[in-house]
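PROTEIN DESIGN WORKSHEET
SECTION A - STRUCTURE
LENGTH: 131
TOKENS:
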């Protein structure tokens, strides 16, 4: 009886992903977390006082995705006294946790560098008439 594992599954040209081989047979390859999917769910979170999503506002500073599916998001708020300081990070965590392949999420609120309007996308500036 010949036992050969399945060929690697490739999520991108330079990142082969292999499933495990056990006596019971091959296990499915782990699902890699897609950065575009993480960004897309961040764009579903809106500051309740501003009709623009937090990604376009420039509140997301960094997204780090580990091989084990742990996602770390560094974000800020428009001001330290933002009334949504408690709810926005929790909403980001909940949204990112729903992305396929995510095993854990850490959302860290950072204040350096401070947020300013230059971090906003062109779309956000147009939506807020700040061009």
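SECTION B - SEQUENCE
RESIDUE ASSIGNMENT:
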């Amino acid at each position: 009886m010949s036992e050969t594992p399945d060929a690697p599954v490739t999520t991108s040209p330079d990142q082969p992903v292999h499933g495990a081989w056990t006596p019971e047979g091959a296990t499915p390859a782990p699902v890699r977390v897609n950065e575009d999917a993480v960004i897309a769910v961040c764009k579903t979170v809106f500051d309740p006082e501003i009709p623009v999503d937090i990604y376009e506002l420039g509140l997301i500073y960094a997204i780090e995705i580990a091989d084990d599916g742990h996602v770390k998001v560094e974000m800020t708020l428009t001001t330290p006294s933002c009334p949504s300081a408690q709810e926005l990070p929790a909403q980001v965590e909940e949204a990112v946790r729903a992305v396929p392949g995510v095993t854990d999420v850490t959302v860290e609120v950072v204040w350096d560098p401070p947020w300013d309007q230059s971090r906003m996308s062109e779309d956000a500036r147009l939506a807020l008439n700040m061009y």
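SECTION C - NOTES
The chain has a mean pLDDT of 85.
The chain has two domains: 1-29, 35-127.
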